[in-house]
Amino acid sequence: MSTEKEKEKERKMFVGVVWNCAAELKYLLTALLFLCSLVTILQFLPTRFSLSASDLRPCLSSPTAPTIVTATATATTATVSLSEDRNNTTNATTTATAPAAADAPTDVILLRQPAPPAMEKDQVLENGIIKRAFNPFGSAAYNFILMSAYRGGPNTFAVMGLASKPLHVFGKPSYRCQWVPFGGSGAEENVENQEPIVTDGQKILTDWGYGRVYTVVVVNCTFSAPVIGGGSGGGKLLLHAATNGGGDTNFNLTDTIEALTESGEDLKNFNQVYSAKPKYDYLYCGSSLYGNLSPQRVREWLAYHIRLFGGKSHFVMHDAGGVHPGVMEVLRPWMEKGYVTLHDIREQERFDGYYHNQFLVVNDCLHRHRYMAKWMFFFDVDEFLFVPKKSTLKTVMDSFSEYTQFTIEQMPMSNKLCLAEDAGKSYRKWGFEKLVYKDVKRGIRRDRKYVVQPRNVFATGVHMSQNTVGKTTHKTEGRIMYFHYHGTIADRREPCRRSVNTTDITIDGIPYSLDTSMRIVAGFVKRFELKMIGSVLQRTRQ
């Protein structure tokens, strides 16, 4: 009996404890439910999301002291010397150096240079005049953004980059070039016994004022004597970019940029290309490709021009965001054949220049391939070169051999008028095959495109070069021209919007005339593509 009473007493005590601790038990049960759910979810996650002891080790280890880097957001260091007196003109030098080592501490504090001076305040002068204070913060644009640098001869180099447009429009920035030869072993450290060579850089502004926040600058560095390095050869080209008080007359900031590092082997390779016959007869330098491009139009353009240019030709394309997977499928067969090289230049979109920085891109292409081609072409992927039936591209180019540069006449084509006989089957025809009506309105100055012999060109533009050695001619009518299908390259729809059954028609005040020059060659181009790369692109979409 007493045992039953004791059990009843223990049961009541347990119930009382549970009742008094109900809130705490709720939290406990909730926590257990959450942990069980988390363990269940982790079992279904990919391994890259799983946790291990190595993931928790940094949290448990003692923190390391952060590394202070005086630099911009890139992994470079910089040294800057400044005077503390704001009232006097201050000279500052920023020297860019190599990226930090891979095993460097991950905690990095980035400090801007120069350090901001103490805030100035308004003052009341003795004569009662209030002298107002102006305190600058931040930086509106970079002094110079390096894209590339190339040797152009025994004593000359070209440096391509972007620079602040207001600085060049309203200031007087300057550039100095310095060649620092390596020592006998070719090592960068052995330069103390070598004599660096310095010369003034000649800046060339190639975009004719079209720049936006940034403008394109080509700096020509021509030294008084050949620069070949010391010992086994090699050296580095430094570019000293000075603002000369532009932006703030109290400061003359000079950035030292390591534009080019050249080994002895690099110099040997250059000399071989420099002295040899050009590898290509014709090389195409394309502008920035951007937007939602039509794979079919790109397919047609490539097949047509590779057939026209022949086996000793090459095409350099630049992807500024326009080479999506569909376009890449069209480029790949020709890349595998060695006809096309693609450059990814999407990073330049960070810097606000004209038309996806196309002036910068074409100048890089010019100097990168300057000694690899006899002739270099500059036009767009909605433009098709054409030579009359009784001529070939070779005979036309040979007729201009005495000129460094010649421009090409434009034939503007309608991007929506098609023949009525193609109705219902136009989707099976190529763009240049079915768009056959030419704008014949007179009295209009139309843009031209151009061709150069690159060895005689220092810098270039989009419609022509103004920095050449030798003669230029614009009298090319009847010998070579280009058909311009404006807007079709970025139109993913069927281009035929209106069917016409006449040779001449006027629409919206613009007279058009039938021109079947390109239509006639379409069959030859299709057979050429099939012969070269097979049927891999037969199902290409608009």
UniProtKB/TrEMBL annotation:
Phosphoprotein as UniProt keyword: no
Cell compartments where the protein resides: Membrane
Domain of life: Eukaryota
Keywords: Glycosyltransferase, Membrane, Transferase, Transmembrane, Transmembrane helix
Assigned EC number: 2.4.1.-
Membrane topology: Single-pass membrane protein
A GO cellular-component term linked to this record: cytoplasm
InterPro entries hit by this protein: Glyco_transf_92
Gene Ontology molecular function terms on file: glycosyltransferase activity
Matches recorded under Pfam families: Glyco_transf_92 (PF01697)
Chain segments annotated as transmembrane: 21-45
Annotated family: Belongs to the glycosyltransferase 92 family.
Annotated protein name in UniProt: Glycosyltransferase family 92 protein
Organism: Coffea arabica (Arabian coffee)
Gene name for this UniProt entry: LOC113707918
